[in-house]
Every structure is written in C-alpha cells, then in structure tokens.
Write a structure and sequence with these properties.
The chain is an alpha+beta fold. The protein is built from three helices and seven strands; from the N terminus they run E-H-E-E-H-E-E-H-E-E.
Length: 159
C-alpha cells in the first residue's frame, strides 16, 4: 500500500493586508450580495470576477422554490463572464457571503459543484485563477483552483 500526500496551500490575510485591487474586488463581491435572491436560505452570496482585460463581472446566488434549480454566486458569475467575454481569462474570483445578521466571520468554502466549474475555467484559459474568500475575521487566498479540489476530474482523464 502506498499513500498519496496532496498538499493544498491557502494564504490567510486580514482585509487590510490585501492589495488595493484585491480589496476593491472583494468589496464588489460584498456589495453585490444585495442583489442575491435567497428567500429560502437567507444566505446572500456575491462573487466578483476580475477578467484579463481589467473588467470586473459580478453575480449572486439565485434560489428557486424547486431547490436544486437554484445556483450559487460563483457559478452565476463565472458562467456569465465566460458567456459575455469568452476570450478573457478570469484572473481572480472573490466571494463574500452574509446572513441576515451580517457578513460571516470566516471565509465561505465554495461547494463542490462550484469548485469543479472554477477548475474548468482555470483549465480552459490555461492559467491559474486566484480565489479570494472573504470573512470578517480572515480572507483566504487560493492561488490556483487545484488547491481547492485535489485529485480533481478534468478532460485529461478522458484522453
Ligand atoms: N451558496 C453560494 O452561492 N455559494 C457557495 O459557495 C455556497 C452556497 C448559496 C447556495 C444557496 O443559495 C445558499 O448559498 C445556501 O446554500
């Protein structure tokens, strides 16, 4: 028997320690939570994607009475960015979330489906996509989606 040891690196910052451009991106993710449609969970999530051309695209979670028909903020944002600007890689994706009592203390961990979609974006543009996960007490920076999804499935498995 042998064990595979997979290491994931996550950098932790205070909001003030981020660069000004990262702060702006996180702020846009926070601001757009006000556009979330989350009448069922009351958990409002916002995401902001910085494209290679400098544009920022934002999106939110959109829920549905038929629960599985809803979609997370990360996928709303990436699918919109990839639809509108298919030739622009996504350099950084920032995510923020709040409950009815305010922004959450610790960063929101993206769901598995969103991690898989993030990975596809990274593979598609053949460059690492940074992910910034906001929490009031810490902001996590992941420098490549591979660190969020070890042992991941991608197109290379089908070759
Ligand atoms: N949600 C997101 O938008 N992003 C995540 O990373 C996790 C969860 C949404 C889905 C649903 O609308 C609500 O948060 C509660 O799960």
């Amino acid at each position: 028997m042998k064990s595979l040891n997979i290491t994931a690196i996550i950098h932790e910052y205070q909001f003030d320690e981020l660069s000004k451009s990262d702060q702006e991106l996180v702020q846009q993710a926070m601001d757009i939570t006000s556009h979330s449609y989350a009448p069922f969970s009351k958990f409002s999530v916002g995401a902001a994607a910085l494209l290679d051309n400098g544009m920022i695209v934002t999106g939110t979670n959109q829920e549905n009475a038929a629960y599985p028909s809803g979609i997370c903020a990360e996928r709303t944002t990436l699918f919109y960015a990839n639809s509108q600007y298919p030739n622009q890689s996504v350099k950084t994706l920032a995510v923020a979330a709040r409950t009815e009592s305010g922004f959450i203390d610790m960063p929101i961990p993206p769901c598995g489906a969103c991690r898989q979609v993030m990975l596809e974006t990274e593979k598609r543009y053949k460059q690492p996509m940074r992910v910034l996960l906001y929490g009031k007490k810490a902001v996590y920076e992941i420098r490549s989606v591979g660190d969020l999804l070890p042992l991941s499935f991608d197109a290379s498995a089908m070759e």
